[in-house]
Protein 1
Amino acid sequence: MKTSLKTLYHGSPVVVSHPSLEMARPGNDYGRGFYCTENEDLAREWACTEGADGWANRYELRMNSLRVLSLKPPVYTVLNWLAVLVANREVRLHAPVMRRGAEWLLANHGVDLSQWDVVVGWRADDSYFSFVRSFLANTITIAQLERAMRLGKLGEQVVLKSERAFAALRFVSADPVPWETWYTRRRNRDLAARAAFEEDEARGDPDGLTIRDLMEGRAK
């Protein structure tokens, strides 16, 4: 049988030549796992913090027999993605309407990730949680949230979730990443996305659907 290989990158402050599930921390987008991307440039952006260089680690993943879940349309929607984030990330829910929205998302659009070896889906930078909170607070529509995600060019991440997936992963190399270039690039993209979102939010979306509309059954 022909081996199907996928090239992945992981941006990190250090070289990660032996990733393991035990090293993975909970509280990330899709829970405990090893977060990678097929886009090397995105990995370089994620590798750097201000004032500190990083590393773009390269791997090969043998896809044969791995159970892969894609959280992308048309099978899944932005609501499924949000429910997964709410289940795993710490999102500040300071208002009752936000807590009710989070509970509704989990009950109606939650996704069980425990049976999958690999999960593929959007990545949420911390800054984008302001957009998520705005949606849960009923101040923007689902269409505005989706536009914000496109404006932010979040990119896709490939997350290894099981020991079977880690056993199929092979470290290839690591390249140094200078923070002056890549941290600045990430910061500028974030600022541009925020400015575009604020402009879109100011225009409003009077005919769009809010989370309250969905909760009250005004639309499927």
Protein 2
Amino acid sequence: MDSLTHLALGACMGDAFAGKELGKKAMLWGALAQSIPDIDFTASFWMTTASNLLAHRGFTHSFLFCLMITPLMALLADYLHRPHNIRLHKWILFFGGVIFFHIFIDAFNNYGVGWFEPFSHERISFNALYVADPFFSVWPGIACIALIFTKRWLPKRKIYWKFGLGLSSLYLMYCLINKIKIDHDVKKILHQQNINYTHYFTTPAPLQNWLWYVVAGNAKGYYIGFRSLLDPKNKLELNYFEKKDSLLKPVNDHVDVNQLKRFSKEFYTVEKWSDTLVFNDLRFGQILGWENQRGRFVFHYFLLHPEDNKLVVQRGRFKGWNWQTITNLISRIRGT
């Protein structure tokens, strides 16, 4: 999830844990603990872009990191707030729970997290929640603001953090139900269209959970399209994108190429744009794909010009967005 959402969730969890004892300092501890796994952003200062893609949400989002950092934060908080009546094991449960919730929530996005690092490089990704979904983030955000401006001794503080954590949790469960429904419908339609595939995933289109991005294919190429929960029974328009793996032959021995393949989980295509080769990671969708079915992919990496790839994950994510784009997105969600 985005950093602001993590901060708001952590603040609510901190107040739930020790708001009465520590006041708003408990919110700060919760926000810090919820944000600590994202310390991996510092890797970008010395790593190449391709290496940093694998480092992000890697070890600092693992169960081992959670086990290592939890007692350190618990001991620090226990020491700084003496004298107090909070036992050490409660500090450990609090910090462990908040940090675990961070790496758990991040697994619902399409980027993937390295839960089992360094023992396994497998990335866990449930593809059920867009990385910045306002319908998930707004509730803890409202609760966090309310807690900031409410006196520590007032009983209604409990109502606020329950509101923030409760509604975001309900929305997460709703997203999982949507995911199950979409997968059921899409696989049925793919079968009806006689499309065979070995690689498959669905993930929400930007900023919501009703329109879903669909990818299905094999080593030769992928069928790509969008399916709304409100679409007619068998509606799924797909476009085929050839993988063109052969274009990588001149650069197959490059370290960044192998890292990109591993990062993409083999969901990629290769294109030639004038003087450079472009590696597309399909998992991050197309730029306005519901409007332009042959649109470029958000994640496009310039293989022959690696110095131009600093914002490769975000590049083009909201390029060309305007009020008409939002109107078209809403129309597509409605099945029109």
Protein 3
Amino acid sequence: MGAGRTLKVCCLSGSYAVLKKLKKIGAPLEADVEFLHTPTEDYDWNESFYFNFSDPKRGMGGWTRIGITPNQESDMGAMMLYAGGSRILAGLQAGRAECEGDELRFGDLSYHRIEPLRKWRLVFQGEMMDVDNARKLPELKPESLMTQRVEVDLEVEGIAPCFNFKDSDPRALAEMVVMARTRLGDLRKVSKVSSEHYEQVMRAVGTIKIGNREISLAGSGHRDHSWGSRDWAAPRLWTWLTCQFGEELAFNLSRVAIASVDIYNGFVTRDGINYPIRRVVLATQFEEDGLTQSTLGFRLEDTGGKVIEVTGEALTVIPLHLEAGDRHTLVNEALAEYRWGDRTGYGIAEYLHQLD
């Protein structure tokens, strides 16, 4: 990096550090952030609660999300289970979510806050679509599918504090902005994908009952809580990767590209401590369609000086098609197997693409 760019990095990172101090950006999270926030009148305003979970010994995983969109016709809710091979079980909810006390309920799905910023209970009781090939999900009609009675009861508990994305490393972000020749006016567009955002590495225990088969799950998980404007069509692309290698090491790696902005963010959790990401090199191999992730590899350095090299393989990909007006967005949500040295872990590899 030349002298000119180095000076720009110093100015940008210094300015952001001052702004954080003046506006108390990145202050420690308080329990009240776990509860619903007052929405704006923005059509794309969205408050999202997301959890994923996996058990390597059972070869099973899943994710669930409730997205509250008060300025649109319906909220969004889902419980998805990766049931082995290409098979998934899908439960989709429509209508309005309800929040009362420590419970957020949406149809057959409910989230219970046991201890803010630390522990939740996830419950689903109802019929789920039984799909033998996840890739076919967008073209299938629900009425043509077999269903299974499914009961999910999981408790998820943080193995480290929540990571507030406003605690990201200022110099690392400044370097990415400068090296990508980002137009500073485009930085404001990043707020179109939720300006308030924190995540947490978790352990997950409980039971999943599919028909007459009951599965005891004891594994790991990851959660995400965000609120603000979320315009799915705003980013050119994004990548969101999570994995837990037991309780020793876990990571979250995200990439958001909007207009001239192309930045990486996230954190590494090591022995119960979160370290923001410092530098990343990521390479992804896609299938022939150029959209479906197949394998990936990255080299990551965190602010504590730890460097990890990880490879990953998408095991089961669920393609989700989102439409708003003439905008068509594809989100490929995959259960992925990751390798770090001789360790194997499981998590999610999510890739977003604009189709138009």
